[in-house]
Design brief:
Catalytic activity: S-ubiquitinyl-[E2 ubiquitin-conjugating enzyme]-L-cysteine + [acceptor protein]-L-lysine = [E2 ubiquitin-conjugating enzyme]-L-cysteine + N(6)-ubiquitinyl-[acceptor protein]-L-lysine
CATH class of the largest domain: Alpha Beta
GO biological process, one term: protein polyubiquitination
Oligomer: single chain
Distance between the termini: 71 Å
Largest sheet: 4 strands, mixed
Number of domains: 2
Number of strands: 4
Keywords: Transferase, Ubl conjugation pathway
Protein name: HECT-type E3 ubiquitin transferase
CATH topology of the largest domain: Hect, E3 ligase catalytic fold
Number of helices: 7
InterPro entries: E3A/B/C-like (IPR044611), HECT_dom (IPR000569), Hect_E3_ubiquitin_ligase (IPR035983)
Strand order of the largest sheet: 1-2-4-3
Helix content: 40-55%
CATH superfamily of the largest domain: Hect, E3 ligase catalytic domain
Length: 142
Amino acid sequence: RKEFVDLYLNYVFNESIQKPFEDFMQGFLRGCPTRKWKMFLPVELQIVLQGHTKLEWHLLEENVVYCQYKRLDRTIRNFWSVFHKLPEEKKKMFLAFLTGSDRIPGLGLEYFTFCIEDPQNQNPDETSPSANTCARILLLPR
């Protein structure tokens, strides 16, 4: 029985995935050659590939650029008041809405900037917030 279990485990964890893993490794090495990613520690490589997963949200507010708004405008104060009360998962959903990803690139939030802009619609009550993900602009009606 021990021999059977050993052979079965070897098949499941090694032999059965050998071809798919080789294909994955070949593609990975094409996009990220070994000589370039060996300079990273495993933790650093994970951040480069996945982005940061733990975020200090107050840094997000500090790096915002305002267009047609000022930091002390009522709309902006209300926005940040609501944002800081959101649970972690909802904040990540906002990040995905704004950028297309719920992760921050490798440098971290201290270097992440975005713009909150007033779309200046004639009737802001009939306009929903929207985002330009490429330019990282949140269009926030008054």
